[in-house]
């Protein structure tokens, strides 16, 4: 069984930080110095864990300086990928944003993960950029595109726009 909970930045984030280190630093080669930052204390963190209380997935969520709800650092333990845990994390985050009345969302997607976020109504904004040598895209969504994508299965735009 998989369980989920929300943590504040002031809570013990050691399990989430270890999972992020394992995925982003060890697996993907990002620098350890940039993995944890000042936003971790400001954010709330979704943590998924198993029956043995081991972290299996996490993400962080915060409001950025431009007023966007920012989803970031989403990761799932390697041996559990393909079991819809990323979907569960996204739905937790989107539910939190929508229940709080959030209207505008933003995230930074690795190029090969872009399609995952498009399923939730996110669209690329601008040109790709490099983050530590890996291509990324800035992606944004609004509450209506998220609702359409999550509840009707569309890709965040209405039939009238097709």
What does this structure look like?
The protein is α+β, with helices and mostly antiparallel strands. The chain has one domain (3-161): Aminopeptidase, CATH 3.40.630.30. 32% of the residues lie in helices and 31% in strands. The protein is built from six helices and eight strands; from the N terminus they run E-H-H-H-E-E-E-H-E-H-E-E-E-H. Strands 1, 2, 3, 4, 5, 6, 7 and 8 form an eight-stranded mixed beta sheet that branches. A hairpin with a 5-residue loop joins strand 2 (44-49) and strand 3 (55-63). It starts with a strand and ends in a 10-residue tail after the last helix. Mean pLDDT is 92; it is low at 154-162.
- Shape type: globular
Number of helices: 6
Overall residue-averaged pLDDT value: 92
Number of strands: 8
CATH class: Alpha Beta
Instruction: Return the string of H and E elements.
Output: EHHHEEEHEHEEEH
Oligomer: single chain
- What's the story with the biggest beta sheet? 8 strands, mixed
- How far from one another are the termini? 40 Å
Number of domains: 1
Percent in strands:
25-35%
By CATH, the architecture is named: 3-Layer(aba) Sandwich
